[in-house]
Amino acid sequence: MALTGVVLVAVSCSYEKSGVTGWDYNNEKNGGFEKAPFQEQETGPGLILVEGGRFTMGRIEQDVTYDWNNVPRTVTVSSFYLDETEVTNFHWLEYIYWVNRIYGIDYPEIYKKALPDTLVWRQKLAFMEPYAELYLRHPAYRDYPVVGVNWLQANDFCAWRTDRVNEMILVREGLFLWNPNQVNEPFTTASYLSGKYDLEKRVEGVNDYHPDREFRNIRMEDGVLLPRYRLPTEAEWEYAAYALIGNSTEEWIQQRRIYPWNGHFVRRGPETKEMGDIMANFVRDKGDYMGVAGKLNDNADITAPVYSYWPNDFGLYCMAGNVSEWVMDVYRPISSEDVEEFRPFRGNVYKTKVLNSDGAVEDKYDLVIYDLNGVKDYLIKFQKSKQGRSTPEETQLIDNCLQLTDEAIALEKADKKDDANTKIQDAVDNIKGTDLSIASILLKGISNYVETTPGNLRYRNVTASENIDRRNYREADNIDFLDGDIKSSIYYENPQHDGFAMYQSGREGITDPTTLINNRARVYKGGSWKDRAYWLSPGARRFLDERQSTMTLGFRCAMIRVGSPVGLGGSTGSRKRK
Questions:
Q1: What is the tens place of the pLDDT at every residue in 177-223?
Q2: Cα 569 to Cα 517: distance, rounded to the nearest angstrom
Q3: Distance (Å, rounded) from C-alpha 369 to C-alpha 197?
Q4: Residues 446, 424: contact at Cβ < 8 Å?
Q5: Residues in Cβ contact with 266 at an 8 Å cutoff, skipping those fewer than 6 apart
Q6: What ranges in 42-182 are assigned the alpha helix state H?
Q7: Is 47 helix (H, G, I), strand (E, B) or coil?
Q8: Is the pTM of this model over 0.85?
Q9: How many CB atoms lie within 10 A of CB 136?
Q10: Each residue of 341-391: pLDDT tens digit?
Q11: What are phi and psi of 477, to 5 degrees?
Q12: DSSP of 142-179, one letter per residue?
C-alpha cells in the first residue's frame, strides 16, 4: 500500500518536458514556461466551418456588362468560418441597444453612427414608405437581413461582436462577472489582452507558473479567446458561395457551377419533390418580383427570412439572392491580375499599437476620435447646401465648427493628436449645446466620421523607418500597390510626384475623389431580391463607396480558422488521416 502511494505521488508530480531543452513545462521551480492544454478552435456563435482549397475564381458567365473585371484564375483559400446566414434586423437591434446603453448619454453621435439608413427604401416613383418605417424594428421582419448598412458600419458590428463573444467566454469560464454598467469604457478583447481592462473580474485570473506572480490574465497562447469576427474577403465569399465540396470526388471537380447549386437552372430539378420551386430570392422577369398569387415563385416580394430556400453544400443560406453582401476588398478593375494566388486580397493597411516612452501600451482613448478631413469635407458640403437658406445663428455655428476643425487638423499635423481630439470634441459639444434645428442633422452627419470610440486602444500606421531591413513590405498603406501607386501611374518616371497618382483625384480642401474607383470603393458580391439571375453567379462583382448603403445590400461575418484546415485535429496527409 505504501509503495502504491509513492507511485501515485511520482506520477502526479511528473511534467511534460521540452523537446529542445529537456526543461519541464508548467514548473515554477525552473521559471514556469507554460504549455496550456488545447484541442481545437471553438466555433463561434452563428459560424460554420468552410474547408479551404483551390478553385477557379472569376466570372464564368458571359460578361454582358463588358467590365472584364474578374478574369478567371486559380487561387487557394485557407479554411475559415462564415456566418450561416446574413446578419438580421434583430441582430442589429441588439447591437444598437448595446451601443445606446454604453455611449448614448455622453456620446449620442456614436449611437447615431450605428443606426442603419432606413431611408434607403424610398423611391421617387414607388410607395416604399412602409418599409422605411417598419422594416428594421417591426417583429415581423426580425429574421430578415438588415439593409441600409454601409461598409464601415458592418466592420464596426464585426468588432463589437468579437468583444461581446470573448466577454461571454470569460464569464462562462468563471473569470468575469456580467457588468451591464460599462458606461464609456466597455470591454474590448485588445484592451484585455494588453492588461488595460479589469473592471468586472470575478477572480484575479488563472494560476501563473511564473515564480514571481500568482495570477495572470488569459493570453492568446491559451487558445481560450476567439480570433476577430470580420467581413470575408472577396475570394473567401466567392469560394464559400460555390461550395464545390459537394460537387467533387477526391480532387476531381465533376462539374463547374454557375450558381451555388448544380445545373444551369434557377429551379429545383425533377429529382426532388420540390420540383419547379425557385432556388433563390431574385427578380424572375421584368416586373415579376414574386410570381402569381396562389403560387408565389419565391414567396418574397422584397427580402426573405435568412433561413429561406435551400442551403448550399457548406450549409450556408442565401449565398445567391435575398441581399448582396459586403466583402473586405477594395475594388480595382484588374485585381485578378495583381493579387496573390494564396489568400488573395487588396486592402491591407498595417497598424500597430501606440506605445509610451517606456515601451508599454499607451492608455486607452477617453474621447471619440474622428476622421478630421472627413468632418471638414462634410461641413463644407453642408455649408454649401445651406448657402442663402440658413439663419445668422446657423451660419455662425457652421463657421465655428469649421474653424475648430481647421485648428484640430493643424494640431494633428503638428503631431499633437490629443489636443486635436480635444479641439474637435469642442466643435461637437458646440453642436450638442445648441437648440438650433440643424443641430441633429449636423450631429448625424459628423457621426459618420467617428473612427474610434472611448475604451479602445490607440493604434497607428506602421512607418517605413520601422521596416528598414524588411523585404516583404515597407509602407503601411498597400491599397494602391501595383494599381494606383506612383509606379503604376502615368507619373512612374517621377517618383517625387506630389499628389494623387490614380483613383484619388480631388479638389483643393476636399478629399472626396472625383472618380468612382478609389480607395473607398469596396466590393460587394452576390445578387439581391431586386436583381436578375445574372447577378446570382458568385463570380460577378460590383462596388460601392464604403460610406454608402442601399436597400439591397447586407453582410455576414467571417473568422479565420487556426490550426488544422479540416477541423477536429485532422491531418493534411492522406496516410496519416487513414
A1: 999 989 999 999 999 999 999 888 889 889 999 999 999 999 999 99
A2: 43
A3: 20
A4: no
A5: 259, 278, 279, 280, 282, 284, 533, 536
A6: 89-103, 108-114, 129-134, 151-172
A7: strand
A8: yes
A9: 23
A10: 999 999 999 999 999 989 999 999 999 999 999 999 999 999 999 988 999
A11: -90, 110
A12: TTSBP-S--HHHHHHHHHHHHHHHHHHHHHHTTSB---
pLDDT, tens digit, for every residue of 313-325? Answer: 999 999 999 999 9
Write out the E strands in 484-550.
Answer: 521-525, 541-545
User: CA angle, 317 as apex, 312 and 323 as ends, to 5°?
Assistant: 125
Which residues are CB-neighbours of 230 under 8 A, at least 6 positions away?
Answer: 155, 158, 328, 557, 558, 559
Cell triple for residue 457?
A: 486602444
User: In one letter, which amino acid is 181?
Assistant: N
Tell me which of 70-79, 267-276, 288-297, 419-428 is least confident.
267-276
* Grid cell listed for 146: 438588415
Whether 368 and 106 have beta carbons less than 8 Å apart is answered as no
464 Cβ contact list (under 8 Å, min separation 6): 474, 475
**Residue type, position 357, single letter:** S
